[in-house]
Amino acid sequence: MKIDFKKEIAGYAAQRGRFDVVTVPELQFLMIDGHGDPNTSGAYRDTLATLYPVAYALKFFSKITLERDYAVMPLEGLWWSESMDSFTTDRDKSRWDWTMMIMVPDWLTAAHVEQAKRTVAGKGGAPRLADLRLEHFDEGLSVQTLHVGSYDDEAPVLAELHDHVIPQQGLRMTGKHHEIYLSDPRRTATERLRTILRQPVRHGS
Predict the structure, then answer these.
(1) In this structure, what CATH number is given to the domain that contains residue 52?
(2) Helix or strand or coil: residue 137?
(3) Which of 72, 56, 73, 104 is nearest to 196 (CA)?
(4) What is residue 79's three-state secondary structure?
(5) Which domain, by its residues, includes 12?
(6) Are 87 and 79 in contact (CB under 8 A)?
(7) CA-closest candidate to residue 132, choices 149, 115, 145, 144
(8) Are 80 and 99 in contact (CB under 8 A)?
(9) Is 161:197 a contact under the CB 8 Å cutoff?
(10) b (16+ CB within 10 A) / e for 170-205
(11) One digit per residue, pLDDT tens: the chain, 205 residues?
């Protein structure tokens, strides 16, 4: 039976117009870091061209060799900058740092990832294999919502989250802005893109 972790793990479901407090469990991800505007950065394009082939190589290895099948998880991104205003009132993508990542099941190991990287390298076309790592990420307490529409229209939602929702609940932002891309932008109209917007928080002012 194929496992769909989106239906089993807290945090992979959200509702538009509603801000939910969730506790995200520790998970492991394929990760690659970078900097700059994702619309123009060659490093960003190369990152996606590397993450997806490795993620699918792992999935097929798990299905065929380990006999444990699962649906490949959506692309996710951690985003940060010296000023959080670069995401809202002073939206400047050239100032963004990022980690793009895809969650993989905990039964897959670093040795499995290295094997998948060798498989992908043999086929060519994955330019950032040397930068890819497997890392555990424990996000914990977070507030999230679902944004429907263009990525460029996220700023008002984030401003509401950062400036009103979080402080009104006696919470404080910590960690990095997190996005989960539930839609494939190559196949989905811009106005229908579904993205979970998440901010890790802690209690206290």
Answers:
(1) 3.20.80.10
(2) strand
(3) 73
(4) strand
(5) 5-203
(6) yes
(7) 115
(8) no
(9) yes
(10) ebebebbbbbbbbeeeeeeeeeebbbbbbbbbeeee
(11) 899 999 999 899 999 999 999 999 999 999 999 998 888 889 999 999 999 999 999 999 999 999 999 999 999 999 988 766 656 555 678 888 999 999 999 999 999 999 999 999 999 889 999 999 999 999 999 999 999 999 989 989 999 999 999 999 999 999 999 999 999 888 999 999 999 999 999 997 6
| Count of domains for the chain | 1
Query: How many Å apart are CA 17 and CA 202, to the nearest integer?
Result: 22
54 by DSSP, 3-state: which? helix
Length of the chain: 205
DSSP letter, residue 124: -
Alpha carbon 160 to chain centroid, angstroms: 21
SS (H, E, C) 26-91: CEEEEEEEEECCCCCCHHHHHHHHHHHHHHHHHHHHHHHCCCCCECCCCEEEEEECCCHHHHCCCC
Provide the token pair at 197: 């917007």
Q: Are strands 20-24 and 140-148 parallel, antiparallel or unpaired?
A: antiparallel
Q: 101 with 51: CB under 8 angstroms?
A: yes
Bridge partners (DSSP) of residue 173 are 201
Q: What angle do CA 78, 30, 137 make, to 5 degrees?
A: 55
Spatial distance between the Cα atoms of 7 and 79, rounded to a whole number of angstroms: 24
